[in-house]
């Protein structure tokens, strides 16, 4: 590519005015094979139009999670929550990404107590006072994906151990995001999250993690929520990924329901919590696109 060619990012700008300095910086860096350090492929770098598209999708996705806060109460079924979320998303001109993804039958994930993630809404599942529930929503608007999840306490009051788990897991999320630096490494996220979780006596689920997102539902890199600093993929401006630590009260091991193929539970039956945000890496830090 020459200086005066149109940039590979699709911005419509000349390469010299867009990502030429970006490529030169990456090409000047040394990558450690021993640390598994890799460079991000160009397809992971979003231009201004892409970022604006993800932001607009994020506005609808955040609206879903705000709506859930109004609806979650004892006696409500998770199917009722799913119906409300589906209607909200589609009425705003968007598409619920989970619906029919890998045969997932619903528009959101509803994960209660010992369910780590991917809980399937059902008329048979009725919320009880003191339950902790994670609602995970991903919205597609004009081809752009935004992905986030929040924890909710049914009835507003739960056992102290459940409340503490929910709070520490949110701290893990924020600490993981704070560890993201432009030209840092994906391993920096996991190192920060894992250290905080373990210092509070919890374990980190390792079978599942965060991921790149934006123009597709799941992209590189896989974001592990435990690990070592300065390992894995380079975090470059223009990348968008999710930070979504799944923190267990007991051991880290999970089981996946053999019948539905989706519902992941803690193997020891103890509580689990998760928070998730969609995060843009900028030239100076990060910007939250969906929370």
Description:
It is a single chain. The chain is of the alpha+beta class and 291 residues long. It is 27% helix and 24% strand. The protein contains five helices and 17 strands. The protein has helices at 20-28, 48-71, 78-91, 160-178, 187-199; strands at 95-96, 109-112, 115-117, 132-141, 144-153, 184-185, 203-204, 210-212, 219-223, 234-235, 240-243, 246-248, 254-256, 264-266, 272-274, 277-281, 286-290. Strands 1, 2, 4 and 5 form a four-stranded antiparallel β-sheet that branches. A hairpin with a 4-residue loop joins strand 16 (277-281) and strand 17. The longest helix has 24 residues, at 48-71. The chain is globular and about 65 Å long. The mean pLDDT is 98.
Describe the structure in brief.
This protein is an alpha+beta fold and 291 residues long. Helix content is 27%, strand content 24%.
Descriptive keywords:
5 helices, single chain, 27% helix, 17 strands, 291 residues, four-stranded antiparallel sheet, alpha+beta
Cα shape = globular
Number of DSSP helical runs: 5
Radius of gyration (Å): 19 Å
Major sheet attributes: 4 strands, antiparallel
Low-confidence stretches: none
Q: β content, as a range?
A: 15-25%
How far from one another are the termini? 37 Å
The quaternary organization reads as single chain
């Amino acid at each position: 590519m020459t200086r005066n060619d149109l940039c590979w990012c699709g911005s419509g700008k000349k390469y010299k005015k867009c990502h030429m300095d970006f490529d030169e910086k990456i090409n000047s860096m040394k990558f450690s094979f021993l640390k598994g350090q890799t460079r991000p492929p160009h397809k992971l770098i979003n231009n201004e139009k892409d970022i604006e598209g993800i932001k607009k999708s994020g506005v609808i996705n955040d609206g879903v999670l705000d709506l859930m806060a109004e609806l979650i109460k004892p006696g409500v079924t998770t199917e009722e929550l799913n119906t409300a979320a589906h209607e909200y998303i589609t009425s705003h001109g968007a598409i619920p990404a989970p619906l029919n993804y890998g045969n997932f039958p619903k528009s959101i994930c509803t994960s209660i107590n010992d369910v780590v993630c991917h809980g399937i809404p059902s008329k048979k599942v009725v919320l009880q006072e003191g339950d902790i529930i994670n609602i995970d929503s991903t919205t597609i608007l004009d081809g752009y994906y935004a992905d986030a999840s929040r924890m909710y306490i049914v009835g507003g009051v739960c056992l102290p151990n459940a409340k503490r788990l929910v709070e520490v897991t949110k701290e893990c999320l924020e600490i993981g995001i704070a560890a993201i630096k432009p030209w840092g490494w994906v391993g920096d996220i996991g190192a920060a999250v894992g250290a905080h979780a373990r210092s509070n006596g919890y374990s980190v689920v390792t079978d599942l993690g965060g991921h790149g997102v934006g123009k597709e539902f799941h992209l590189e890199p896989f974001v592990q929520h435990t690990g070592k600093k300065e390992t894995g993929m380079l975090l470059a401006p223009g990348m968008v990924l999710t930070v979504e630590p799944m923190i267990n009260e007991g051991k880290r091991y999970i089981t996946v329901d053999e019948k539905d193929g989706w519902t992941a539970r803690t193997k020891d039956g103890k509580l689990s919590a998760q928070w998730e945000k969609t995060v843009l890496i900028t030239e100076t830090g990060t910007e939250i696109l969906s929370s």
